[in-house]
Amino acid sequence: MPMDWIWGLIGGLLIGTGGAVYLLGNGKIMGASGIIGGLVDGSGRATALERTLFLLGVALMPAVLMPFFQGVTTNITDDYLVLVAAGLLVGVGTRLANGCTSGHGVCGMSRLSIRGFVATGIYIVAGGLGVVIFRHILGVI
Amino acid sequence: MLRHIIALIAGGLFGSGLFLSGMTNTAKVQGWLDVFGDWDPTLAFVMGGAMIPMALAWLVRNRRVTALTGAPLPPPASSEIDRKLVVGSVLFGMGWGLAGLCPGPTIAALSYGGPGLYVFLAAMLTGMLVAPSLRARLDRAVPAE
Lengths: 141, 145
What we know:
The complex is a heterodimer. Chain A is mainly alpha-helical.
């Protein structure tokens, strides 16, 4: 769709504003994998409510906005084997790297963090290779 | 109390942005990664747009001692490139390309992603649960310098 980049920009500005509010309000870096991971492995027990409310906001707002938009879809694959493999890779990978698209990408690169640039460069190349291998060579996605 | 309200607001902004930008659409994410297919540039606009307010926030951070709630601000970014960062980012990227999902959009799509999204979420949480033991192993593999 020709209007997609405008929505991308608007959405991006909102994502960055969320990160700015979280940083200047609570002194925290808005990284989705870190916020979720801290709840899963217990390392974020002291801030469990703060993390849970953040995630509640993330899950709630799309549900509130949904009635105003038509044809929103995730296009998610129905191949559960692919989803399990991908989920495990994303879960393990983001926690080993200590960040994902929001933490290393949005928050890291915007402070000119070397780790942010290295991580983002690597996961984009790996993701591109993944699509080439799994889509164009193996044909599983 | 204030920090909990701020967390909810920040999460709401993040979720709204992920929804409006189309980043919960796995086809758009995979379309951006698929440089040899029908390339979709949207993700670059999302990332660029997100970095504008975030970069401004980092500039403000440099002029402040504490956050609004009195909480300490994050220390300067570490520049250590270790094995965990590299291995983790390779694994994450592969999974990201495979399903077109990363952690933020997974949570944002909970109300409309269907059963497949919950399968992905369960696997992702399992991965996050086992990561600390792998982290320790990768640390041991590198002799202390």
